[in-house]
């Protein structure tokens, strides 16, 4: 029995000398110490050993197991150390090499234009107010003096969740919500995404952004509206920019106008950019309709106000001379890095 155990230990230690991986070492462990290993087979022969010799044989088996397990532990530690050294050698970093720069993208032209507009109006005492993109039909149309079956609704009838809920077509509902709160005076702009059933082309998209403004206070006149928008135009397009107001119709303002700015490329002389007209249309505006004030709980005999709305993409396209609106939505970093 002793000779058999010595032979098992010798052969096992000899096999371990040529082992290169922990997987191969584990195979040796299983073949010797596992449930069907060689030592287990020796233990099965204990029934043939005389009872008085069994303690001695059991001690010899335990000593053989201890020698093998000790060598296995030693070999496993050595193999793990060699593996770590190879890994560290392969993954070492040359700290003298230039560091990799993190690609953090670039600010979008819409974001740049919006931040500049917010800076201008905040400087004039306005606050920035946001509202839900999924809106009640009542706020999106009715409270803005566009009742059911009104012709003006056909231009904006768009994406409905149901007959009472719609994806907002303008950010004006935010103004109606603020007026309902009754906290006067009001000086606010409401930027955000809006939705209309437009075909995608160089100047249209079913989803775009607006920035609308509202002022409600005592003794507000059209002169206040003109002065505000003239200051805005000079701030965003340059100090020499001139403005022109043309009569127009919006259901929620009366009187209403569209505002043009003098072409900042040619100074109003006429060029390709302004199509030879010298003027560029940028926004719609007007005095808040008395009926809108009434529906929002404000006395039109005591308070007046003005409102305006401008497409954010239109400002970005004009300011940065982009000729196709679709470029704004492709998020190509090569395009965005130009601004």
TrEMBL record:
Keyword Coiled coil in record: yes
Query: A Gene Ontology biological process annotation?
Result: phenylalanyl-tRNA aminoacylation
Query: So what EC number does this one have?
Result: 6.1.1.20
- Recorded catalytic activity of this chain's protein: tRNA(Phe) + L-phenylalanine + ATP = L-phenylalanyl-tRNA(Phe) + AMP + diphosphate + H(+)
Source organism of the structure: Bilifractor porci
In Swiss-Prot or TrEMBL terms, this protein is called: Phenylalanine--tRNA ligase alpha subunit
Q: Which cofactor does it need?
A: Mg(2+)
The molecular function terms in GO held by this entry are: ATP binding; catalytic activity, acting on a protein; magnesium ion binding; phenylalanine-tRNA ligase activity; transferase activity; tRNA binding
Localization per Swiss-Prot or TrEMBL: Cytoplasm
Bound cofactor: record note: Binds 2 magnesium ions per tetramer.
Taxonomically, the superkingdom here is Bacteria
Q: Which family does it belong to?
A: Belongs to the class-II aminoacyl-tRNA synthetase family. Phe-tRNA synthetase alpha subunit type 1 subfamily.
Gene Ontology annotations for the cellular component aspect, listed alphabetically:
cytoplasm
Residues in Aminoacyl-transfer RNA synthetases class-II family profile domain copies: 119-330
Q: Which residues form a coiled coil?
A: 65-92
Does Transcription count among this protein's keywords?
no
Q: Which UniProt keywords apply?
A: Aminoacyl-tRNA synthetase, ATP-binding, Coiled coil, Cytoplasm, Ligase, Magnesium, Metal-binding, Nucleotide-binding, Protein biosynthesis
